[in-house]
């Protein structure tokens, strides 16, 4: 029942819940089902990266951790959050992560389409 309830949480809330007590931490850490669900949401933005990590034998949790920030950043770029940045100072304090050439191609195409 706990896994079903935890399954309703988003990634950040799930990570916070795992820090609540030892029992919740154990339930969340040991549930591949929870991490898989979250990872498949990230896969919508970072399919190549997630699929590559899974092919390389990484667990759902490790794959999620490796790709969560990348998916958030990519979604922000694709939604146009950074469309009108005129200098690097405007990005100061924002967490950036490396993106591959194909991802940059998608972002540039989205900018051209706007």
Automatic annotation (TrEMBL):
Location of the F-box domain = 1-38
What InterPro entries does UniProt report for this protein, alphabetically?
A: F-box-like_dom_sf (IPR036047), F-box_dom (IPR001810)
Could you tell me the superkingdom of the organism this chain comes from? Eukaryota
Q: What is this protein called?
A: F-box domain-containing protein
In the record, what lineage is assigned to the organism producing the protein? Eukaryota, Metazoa, Chordata, Craniata, Vertebrata
């Amino acid at each position: 029942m706990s896994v079903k309830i935890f399954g309703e949480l988003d990634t950040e809330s799930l990570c916070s819940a795992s820090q609540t007590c030892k029992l919740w931490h154990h339930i969340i850490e040991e549930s591949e089902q929870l991490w898989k669900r979250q990872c498949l949401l990230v896969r919508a933005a970072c399919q190549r990266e997630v699929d590559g990590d899974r092919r390389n034998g990484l667990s759902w949790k490790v794959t999620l951790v490796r790709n969560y920030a990348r998916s958030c950043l990519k979604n922000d770029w694709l939604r146009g959050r950074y469309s009108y940045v005129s200098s690097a100072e405007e990005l100061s304090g924002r967490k950036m992560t490396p993106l591959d050439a194909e991802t940059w191609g998608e972002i540039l195409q989205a900018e051209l389409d706007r």
